[in-house]
Design goal:
Layout (H helix, E strand, L loop, with lengths): L7 E5 L6 H14 L4 E5 H6 L9 H20 L3 E5 L5 H11 L4 E7 L2 H7 L4 H6 L21 E4 L5 H19 L1
Parallel strand pairs: 1-3, 1-4, 2-3, 4-5
Helix pairs in contact: 1-7, 3-4
Length: 180
């Protein structure tokens, strides 16, 4: 019998692309199927474990390192993880992958064009950045490098939430089946 390998779905994308929304929906659907996933969200992490960090590239890298280490610990307990982080550069995502481990890490690109994210702007980040009130906003005055070859790709600008969740659910279930 093959060993069960827990996975970490690493959802990356711009603020407002839908990472956390999709992550929560996926977590609920998986729980309905008796598959446990812990969700780690960037905003939640910054209210506790990473509250001492700002948004420079160095501080973002440290935030992702902490998230990856936490994910690795959860995975060691045979529990799946969903991580929702902008994780703006290839280098930062590679750091997370190296900590979590290639067998467990699944990169999920939640894509939406900048103009769609600005229009959604659920936290008012883009409004403040465009007014010069805050700095280091990915896609505005700080880089965002889309994944070159994500394991799963979802465009939330052209897809309803139901279709996006179903696609993510089906692709995740296929990965879990392949791992067992």
């Amino acid at each position: 019998m093959k060993e069960k390998i827990p996975i970490c779905l690493w959802l990356t994308g711009l603020s407002g692309a839908g990472k956390t929304t999709l992550g929560h929906y996926l977590q609920k659907e998986m729980l309905r199927l008796n598959i446990e996933f812990v969700l780690i969200d960037g905003d939640d992490l910054r209210m506790g474990l990473s509250r001492d960090l700002g948004f420079t590239l160095t501080e973002r890298t440290e935030n992702i390192r902490r998230a990856a280490e936490l994910s690795r610990l959860i995975l060691r307990s045979d529990v799946n993880v969903i991580c929702c982080f902008i994780s703006p550069t290839q280098e930062i995502r590679q750091l997370a992958k190296s900590i979590i481990g290639i067998r467990h890490f699944v990169e999920v690109f939640i894509d939406a064009p900048m103009e769609v994210c600005i229009k959604r702007d659920p936290k008012g980040i883009y409004t403040k950045a465009l007014q010069g009130k805050i700095k280091h906003v990915s896609g505005i005055d700080s880089p965002y490098e889309p994944p070159e070859l994500a394991d799963i790709y979802i465009n939330t600008a052209d897809t309803s939430i139901n279709l996006a969740v179903n696609k993510l659910l089906n692709e995740t279930l296929a990965l879990i089946k392949a791992q067992s």
